[in-house]
Recover the amino acids of this structure.
């Protein structure tokens, strides 16, 4: 068999979404790759230009469907900066808690999908089982399990329900020993190590060169974590370590994500303790009326809005479960953002695909791409 | 790192075509530069200022002009830097940043197809999110939603 | 006449049936009592019973695997059709049977349809050779084990034919992987069998089981059992050696293009081979239908005791395979071949040498000297 191109996708078990990895192979060796994106492009940035600031939140949940809260958090921060608003203290902590729960859920989802690609069937179901508990928590205070629409410009929609903190702690107590089990199933397996060690290597210098961030970068020894480097929300007030590994391979990315889950649990415990003792408002007073309005401002209101509202540009960056996400929201007055630009971490991580795929086997594609944790929703937007 | 430091470093390195260096919320500074000097400026920003990581490249259609901005991160200074250049509204184009920051490759492809900014000497300026043969630039202000459009999608044979 | 073997059952049924017919239709009695016709009908019945038994067992095996995997994964497996989902797989089979058979436009007709059919047929053929109990097959087949292994090793050919004729890159890659894998693992399997043959002194599966009346071979030939089981795992294409149909990278490997009944053929044949592999392990190493001497005699004197104990053992062996499937990830092609050529073959050679040494000293270290041993 001489060299040939195969299409892995757009409907292929490896892709975990809709995209096409065109692979140039010789026998089982990969000579080159060309990711083809756009199958899930919904024009979120364009639609946002026609929506109220609060209506964009709906789209954020759909940007990355396994990390909705993180994207809401990202957008909300940028939008608030653009509009010059400040959320109440408690709202910030609830947002941080939501983001960390989302990170936990996203990483568990990643774990499930990743081991499934390796042919390990049982941990997939363990992961889905445990992720459900977190989704139950989300459901209890947002009403949604996947698309929450919870955060608002100037705070969050509603406070946590009674008894939430204890329920959340119970979930964390259940999850912590499960993480040990996960680890034992993977790191304790010789075949797993043989599959993943020295696979898909991308050194730190190459990561920076190609814009690769998140667990992929940290697995190469870099300590770059926006939560630490440029603390947003209330991350400066909680105690946690940045998970790193040295090997820069698939095992390293696995170890980083596992450690991040442990650190998330640590952050969550501190956050829940703070929330226990600090009741308060969760939505800022004196929001402009149209921000909460389901209708477009008309008449005098619209006129005042156009004339008086402060313009501004909001820029925010968060450490999304997949890496560095940035939002750039331009407010030119009026009820709609003038331009919204998002930086998706997976977008950049995928653009470097040829760097970490070429030279390996076809059978290595699922574990390597699994370790990248592709979420097509946020690549295509 | 603040705007003054950025300005001092840029002048020290002899950066061409700097129009202004202003403070900007959330980043160390916003550096406005003239698009003609992009090619010599990018390596200076990367090496002399120490911004090896390019987060994103984006374009904005201001109707009377285009703006292209580059968001950069410095791991030593732990801060972002915003580069921005105003482009001609008729035929907006600028030198590619992908020879300096390889990560700009896809971001520029996206900015090219969605905003319509041309990137000179880009190694691989193909459609990324839109199908091949899509001749519209959806993020331009002239592109209105809810409008029927004629779209012929060329089928690519592999 | 005493019904002792399956052949006797078939013969009894066919001669009885023909006898009744001859009684009803006296003019045709000369034909109906013809011994050749009786023989022909009993042969057909024999085959039908074998077919039915192996098919039902296969489907039950799938059920067993689904339930067991379910338990490993914190869920319940099939629950809705029949008691505890017992009939679920029959329903699935019926569904596949009803489905439209389709073929890619550019696929080759003969290979596309012939491949799965031949795969299915050869998998079924194996059950004509494998004895399930002392009374299963009457005729002495002096080389029955070799025959079984020969039939077993037909599979890569047919898999490759159907993969190639599917005209799909994934199928082709899966087929090539499958062929490489099966050929690589034939060798250690055969060498492990050589160890058994050396100790048992016969190629006849019936005789091999009889040799295990006093001691099962798994103890003295543990290394051979290990090699044989790993090899069988690869031959069955089950996790961790299921690369030919590794769904993560090859969609469904060599059966990507198959649907409906042809897919059911592959599925059934896979499980038939799994069943045959488990049966072979029981026959060669776990004493077949015999029980250890310390088990009370009542256990062996029950009607059909041999078959029951045999099936229990077979399902336990298969249960181990399911356990492995629930616990291990998939290996890579090069690792698989390296395991086969560089680990299993030396190991199996060691096993052969060990077995030869055992035969030479005519003594088994664990169970004491056994005079009846071959050599």
């Amino acid at each position: 068999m001489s060299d040939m191109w195969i299409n892995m996708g757009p409907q292929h078990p490896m892709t975990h979404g809709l995209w096409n990895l065109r692979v140039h192979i010789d026998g089982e060796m990969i000579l080159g790759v060309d990711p083809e994106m756009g199958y899930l492009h919904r024009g979120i940035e364009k639609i946002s230009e026609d929506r109220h600031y609060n209506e964009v939140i709906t789209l954020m949940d759909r940007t990355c469907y396994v990390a909705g809260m993180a994207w809401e958090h990202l957008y909300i921060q940028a939008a608030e900066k653009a509009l010059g608003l400040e959320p109440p203290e408690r709202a910030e902590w609830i947002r941080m808690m939501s983001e960390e729960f989302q990170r936990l859920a996203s990483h568990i989802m990643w774990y499930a999908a990743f081991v499934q690609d390796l042919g390990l069937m049982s941990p997939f179901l363990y992961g889905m089982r445990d992720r459900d508990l977190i989704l139950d928590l989300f459901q209890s205070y947002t009403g949604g399990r996947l698309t929450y629409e919870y955060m608002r410009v100037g705070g969050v929609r509603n406070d946590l329900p009674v008894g939430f903190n204890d329920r959340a702690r119970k979930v964390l107590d259940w999850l912590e020993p499960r993480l040990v089990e996960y680890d034992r199933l993977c790191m304790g397996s010789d075949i797993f190590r043989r599959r993943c060690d020295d696979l898909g290597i991308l050194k730190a210098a190459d990561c920076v060169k190609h814009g690769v961030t998140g667990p992929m970068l940290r697995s190469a020894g870099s300590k770059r974590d926006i939560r630490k480097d440029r603390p947003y929300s209330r991350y400066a007030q909680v105690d946690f370590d940045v998970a790193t590994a040295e090997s820069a391979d698939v095992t390293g990315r696995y170890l980083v994500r596992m450690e991040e889950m442990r650190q998330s649990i640590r952050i969550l415990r501190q956050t829940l303790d703070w929330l226990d003792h600090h009741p308060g408002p969760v939505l800022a007073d004196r929001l402009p009326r149209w921000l909460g309005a389901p209708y477009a401002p008309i008449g005098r209101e619209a006129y005042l809005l156009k004339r008086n509202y402060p313009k501004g540009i909001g820029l925010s960056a968060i450490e999304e479960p997949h890496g560095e996400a940035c939002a750039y929201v331009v407010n030119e007055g009026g009820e709609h953002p003038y331009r919204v630009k998002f930086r998706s971490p997976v977008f950049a991580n995928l653009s470097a695909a040829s760097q970490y795929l070429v030279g390996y086997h076809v059978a290595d594609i699922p574990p390597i791409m699994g370790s990248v944790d592709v979420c097509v929703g946020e690549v295509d937007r | 790192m603040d705007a003054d430091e950025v300005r001092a470093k840029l002048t020290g390195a002899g950066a061409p075509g700097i129009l202004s260096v202003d403070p900007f919320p959330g980043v160390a500074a916003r550096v406005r530069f003239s698009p003609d000097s992009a090619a010599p400026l990018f390596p200076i920003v990367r090496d002399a200022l120490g911004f090896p990581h390019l987060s994103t490249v984006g374009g904005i259609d201001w109707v009377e002009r285009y703006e292209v901005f580059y968001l950069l991160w410095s791991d030593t200074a732990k801060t972002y830097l915003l580069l921005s250049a105003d482009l001609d509204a008729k035929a907006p184009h600028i030198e590619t940043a992908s020879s300096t920051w390889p990560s700009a490759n896809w971001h520029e492809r996206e900015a090219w197809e969605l905003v319509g900014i041309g990137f000179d000497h880009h190694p691989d300026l193909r459609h990324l999110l839109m199908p091949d043969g899509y001749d519209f630039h959806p993020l331009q202000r002239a592109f209105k939603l809810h409008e029927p459009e004629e779209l012929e999608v060329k089928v690519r044979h592999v | 006449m005493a019904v002792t073997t399956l052949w006797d059952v078939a013969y009894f049924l066919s001669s009885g049936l023909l006898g009744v017919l001859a009684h009803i239709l006296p003019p045709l009695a000369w034909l109906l009592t013809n011994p050749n016709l009786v023989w022909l009908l009993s042969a057909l019945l024999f085959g039908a019973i074998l077919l039915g038994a192996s098919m039902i067992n296969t489907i039950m095996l799938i059920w067993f695997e689904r339930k067991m995997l379910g338990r490993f994964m914190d869920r319940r497996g099939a629950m809705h059709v029949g008691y505890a989902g017992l009939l679920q797989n029959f329903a699935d089979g019926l569904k596949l049977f009803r489905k439209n058979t389709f073929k890619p436009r550019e696929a080759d007709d003969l290979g596309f349809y012939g491949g799965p059919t031949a795969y299915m047929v050869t998998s079924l053929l194996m059950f004509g050779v494998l004895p399930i109990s002392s009374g299963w097959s009457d005729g002495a087949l002096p080389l029955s084990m070799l025959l079984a292994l020969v039939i077993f090793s037909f599979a890569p050919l047919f898999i490759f034919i159907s993969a190639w004729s599917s005209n799909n890159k994934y199928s082709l890659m899966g087929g090539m992987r499958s062929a490489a894998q099966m050929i690589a693992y034939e060798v250690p399997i055969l060498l492990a069998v050589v160890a058994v043959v050396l100790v048992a002194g016969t190629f006849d599966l019936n005789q091999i089981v009889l040799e295990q009346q006093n001691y099962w071979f798994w103890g003295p030939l543990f290394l051979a059992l290990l090699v044989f089981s790993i090899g069988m795992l690869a031959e069955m294409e089950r996790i961790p050696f299921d690369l030919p149909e590794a769904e993560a990278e090859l969609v469904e490997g060599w059966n990507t293009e198959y649907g409906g009944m042809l897919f059911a053929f592959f599925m059934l044949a896979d499980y038939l081979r799994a069943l045959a592999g488990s049966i072979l392990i029981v026959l060669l190493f776990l004493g077949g239908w015999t029980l250890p001497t310390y088990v009370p005699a009542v256990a062996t004197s029950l009607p059909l005791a041999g078959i029951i104990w045999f099936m229990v053992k077979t399902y336990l062996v298969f249960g181990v395979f399911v356990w492995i499937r629930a616990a291990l990830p998939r290996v890579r092609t090069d690792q698989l071949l390296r395991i086969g050529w560089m680990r299993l073959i030396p190991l199996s050679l060691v096993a052969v040498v060990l077995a030869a040494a055992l035969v030479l000293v005519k003594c088994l270290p664990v169970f004491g000297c056994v005079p009846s041993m071959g050599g």
